């Protein structure tokens, strides 16, 4: 028997990349690869890259610089280290990566991971670096096993891809180019995946897709099912106690998704709904195809269905032509909605996107300053949201032993980490926790007397704007 080969995967970017990294591990396992925590002693290093902002893309090249040294050291020890660049930079730049960084052995795009074993074998046999042809239509539906199958269960919570690609073409965004057009997986395949994961101990499923609520996979009745209908069906699967989905677009929130939030206890009342800007003029320039008022109406529909629902979002500051007045509209929107948290980014022009041809009008200094102001507002909302849990009893799904001995960590409905001192057999259960204090972003508490406290966490706290409208 050949000794196991060591595989190190480093993932950047979104949840889809995290999921894909796990898929690559599962694809390479039959080839004798086992995961290792460090690149230095690895036989195979995979960088699963993100192209979304310039900083993300450039990280790859600095990492490849480090890997060149590690590869040379390995060679001196008589070991061969192979380097693969996967993900969205691979898709966007292809062969250019090999030209810029000869340390790379294989470049493979997000739709071609199932070819990895053959590509590695060919690169080795031919003694040269290889790039796949990136067949963009070669998505889940067409992939041969095992990559088409759900990833192996890893703990209590699992991602399941239901949709890939995006047809929205926001003017700043590379995703429609790196991940291609929208494709939805058939309902039956998703049910199979979730069932298998549930049988293997998974209790929480997050359905993922670049534009997940544009889901329209073929249902068993021969019609396309919207995401809401899929959620109703998945909620029936024994063992699944929590359902989530990410990332949604405000334009694709249809009524069954709203009613699913009203009807399904398993569907968590926490929705990531990026808006990017509060200025209608900037939203139009971004090709978001909705106004700030449209977005507020979507939020209101969710809140009417479920009063304890909370939201997070993404924002871009400094989009070309953004004025101080536009930015003030963003702050006003944030103040009005009241978020449990949000990500905010400085605009980064991306090659090939329409916005890259627009003249940049916002200076770096102004962008920095706007980002700080926005993040201060979001941070204050997030802290208020977390503080509101203190003194309450909240349901926690326990996931694993914490770093502190004797402690078990889980998450609330709002993904806040919660720590309690308890026996390990609570892992996999949802139990009420009395929250006593807050340490940075984590809630600390103790198990509440079971049966006493089933009150929903944070009822009302988020239906009111935290910062005043
Ligand atoms: N599919 C998701 C997320 C796409 S990328 C969605 O539609 O919301 C995640 C976030 O990165 C985006 O929401 C946006 O806020 C940010 N982003 C994308 N392109 C960017 C760019 N060129 N510059 C700065 N931020 C960007
Ligand atoms: Fe990018 Fe817009 Fe699609 Fe989101 S909706 S992935 S921001 S193009
Ligand atoms: Fe990045 Fe690609 Fe995801 S560009 S955000 S890894 S879809």
Notable features of this structure?
469 residues; alpha/beta; Rossmann fold; pyruvate-formate lyase- activating enzyme; OB fold (Dihydrolipoamide Acetyltransferase, E2P); 3 domains; six-stranded parallel beta sheet; five-stranded mixed beta barrel; 13 helices; 33% helix; disordered C terminus; binds S-adenosyl-L-homocysteine; binds iron/sulfur cluster
Give a quick rundown of the structure.
By secondary structure, this protein is an alpha/beta fold. The protein has 13 helices and 19 strands. Mean pLDDT is 90; it is low at 136-148 and 451-469.
**CATH class category label of the largest domain:** Alpha Beta
- The value of Rg in angstroms is 23 Å
**Bound ions, cofactors and other small molecules, one mention each:** S-adenosyl-L-homocysteine, iron/sulfur cluster, FE3-S4 cluster
Weakly predicted, low-confidence segments: 136-148, 451-469
Question: Which secondary-structure class do the elements indicate?
Answer: alpha/beta
For the record, the count of structural domains works out to 3
What sort of overall outline do the alpha carbons produce when their principal axes are compared?
globular
The CATH superfamily of the largest domain is identified as tm_1862 like domain
How many strands in all? 19
**Number of H/I helices:** 13
Mean pLDDT: 90
Distance between the termini: 67 Å
Please name the CATH topology of the largest domain.
Answer: pyruvate-formate lyase- activating enzyme
Please give the largest β-sheet.
6 strands, parallel
Strand percentage = 15-25%
């Amino acid at each position: 028997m050949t000794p196991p080969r060591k595989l190190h995967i480093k993932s950047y970017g979104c949840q889809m990349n995290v999921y894909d990294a796990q898929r690559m591990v599962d694809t390479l396992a039959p080839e004798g690869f086992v995961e290792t925590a460090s690149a230095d002693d690895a036989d195979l290093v995979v960088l699963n890259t993100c192209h979304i902002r310039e900083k993300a893309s450039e990280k790859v090249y600095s990492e490849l610089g480090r890997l060149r040294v590690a590869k040379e050291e390995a060679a001196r020890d008589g070991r061969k280290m192979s380097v693969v660049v996967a993900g969205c930079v691979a898709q966007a730049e292809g062969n250019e990566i090999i030209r810029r960084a000869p340390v790379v052995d294989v470049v493979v795009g997000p739709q071609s991971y199932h070819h990895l074993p053959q590509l590695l074998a060919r690169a080795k046999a031919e003694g040269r670096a290889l790039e796949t042809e990136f067949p963009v239509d070669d998505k889940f539906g067409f992939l041969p096993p095992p990559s088409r199958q759900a990833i192996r269960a890893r703990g209590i919570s699992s991602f399941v891809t239901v949709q890939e690609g995006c047809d929205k073409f926001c003017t700043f965004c590379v995703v429609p180019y790196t991940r291609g057009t929208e494709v939805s997986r058939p309902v039956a395949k998703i049910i199979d995946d979730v069932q298998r994961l549930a049988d293997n101990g998974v209790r929480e499923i997050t359905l993922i897709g670049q534009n997940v609520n544009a889901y329209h996979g073929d249902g068993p009745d021969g019609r396309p099912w919207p995401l809401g209908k899929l959620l109703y069906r998945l909620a029936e699967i024994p063992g699944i106690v929590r359902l989530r989905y990410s990332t949604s677009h405000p334009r694709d929130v249809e009524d069954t998704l709203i009613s699913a939030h009203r009807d399904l206890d398993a569907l968590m009342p926490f929705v990531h709904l990026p808006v990017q800007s509060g200025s209608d003029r900037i939203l139009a320039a971004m090709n978001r195809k909705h106004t700030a008022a449209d977005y507020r109406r979507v939020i209101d529909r969710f809140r009417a269905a479920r009063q304890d629902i909370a939201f997070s979002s993404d924002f871009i500051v400094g989009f070309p032509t953004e004025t101080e007045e536009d930015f003030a509209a963003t702050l006003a929107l944030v103040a009005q909605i009241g978020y449990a948290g949000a990500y905010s980014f400085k605009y980064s022009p991306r090659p090939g996107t329409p916005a890259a041809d627009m003249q940049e009008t916002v200076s770096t200094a102004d962008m920095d300053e706007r980002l700080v102001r926005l993040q201060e507002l979001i941070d204050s909302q997030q802290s208020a949201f977390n503080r509101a849990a203190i003194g309450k009893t909240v349901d926690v799904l326990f996931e694993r032993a914490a770093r502190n001995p004797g402690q078990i960590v889980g998450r609330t409905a709002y993904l806040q980490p919660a720590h309690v001192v308890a026996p390990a057999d609570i892992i996999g259960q949802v139990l009420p926790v009395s929250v006593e204090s807050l340490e940075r972003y984590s809630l600390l508490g103790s198990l509440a007397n079971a049966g006493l406290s089933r009150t929903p966490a944070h009822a009302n706290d988020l239906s009111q704007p935290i910062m005043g409208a």
